[in-house]
Amino acid sequence: MTNHKPDRQLSHTNLDSEIEAHFKIIKSCSVKTDGGETILLAAKPESRYPYFYPRDVACVSGLLAYLSTSDFSIADDVYELLKSIAKFVLKILRDDGYLGQRYALSGEEKSVYKQEDNNAHGLIILSNYLLTAEKRGEDIQDIDKFLLSINNASQFAIKNYYRPEINLFHSTTSIHESALEEGFSCWTNFAYLKAFYLVSKVNSELDTPDIIPDKILTFKSAFKHNLFGIMVSNKRFLRRIDQKGNYDFKPDFTLLSPFYFGFGNEDKNLLDNSAGFMERQLWDPELGMIQRYLPFSGDIEIHTHAGNGPWLQYTAVLAQYHYWCKNAEKGDGLVSLIDRYKNEKGEIPEHISTCKRFDAFIESEWKTGIDFAKEFDKHILQDNLDFDKILEEANNMQRTYNEVAERCMIPDITMEEGGYVMFVTPLMWSHAEYMKALLYKHGLYSNDSM
Fold it and tell me: InterPro entries annotated for this entry (predicted)?
């Protein structure tokens, strides 16, 4: 047991129990690698996603960092998981600083898509670990290797993904893993702003040799100033500026990126306008909660994944936003909706759809090959991608769709669309965001980067 000082005394016994229950589900999505690290997968090992995704794990790493220095009963177990994850990232990060979309337990890269936000996510994971270890007073083995990797990942991103002529990072795909993100997206750029904020914090708070150069540290301030000037129009944030320079005003979960990555206080009016627009436009009229984006399935950039419907991790983030705004009633309403769609084990899916929409998806997109064409559109795939990786992913997709049809359909004659389907249950990321929502509700969590 490590002797560290908690941030505050915990007075919510029921909350402690609930947080522990969700952490157990998250741990059910973990495996031990041949190298001895315990790492988090996107879902259980037998699911469609038996991989380590830097994006998903970065999104949970801030929660793990908070819990590691809290008075919750799981603090020490959480810290060991965070440390193990960071060691795995240290192993898979290429010598030149590149980090891919996803990895097998062996550390082999299994990326399918070009996805430029991963370096940001790797920096977030490594920085959260180092800052947490420092706060707990832990010894950090191989600290120079960690700092060198942070330097390399930072330099790689700036050299390969940053466009200084417009002061933004470009992306081919990112959070949505489709060309919907191609260009200069809100998510990718705020992910990098968070990453460089944390890198600067590592440099200032750890008493270590000066491995991270000054130009990395000064980059953050100029980039932040430019981002809040460029990624804004009509008094709200933009989803993206496309590769031709056109403004994309469509509603998208990623309009919450400034809040999600801790910069909500920079201009709260912009954030409130963006969040209100997004919530109104993306609300699912049959199931409640929010969709990722509007499901115009005729667009090659729109992947509907077993039928369109709400995504529970994004809905949980919206609940966090309402709790942060001191609007507990709206936050509670969203959490209650998520609760409605947990399974009998208390597990939360990635997203849900209706039985009618799922059947339509299978007939109109899966059986026709349209979904395959969208998923494996050549210009968003990794260069020289081995076709075996495409087959592996396609087989995972088919297996999951079959499982949904056989085991995950919940008929309900009272629902206009015949009931609902649950897709990928549990999703590790959904439980992480739900936990954050609970902590926001009790005033125990903040990702504020200001």
Answer: 6-hairpin_glycosidase_sf, 6hp_glycosidase-like_sf
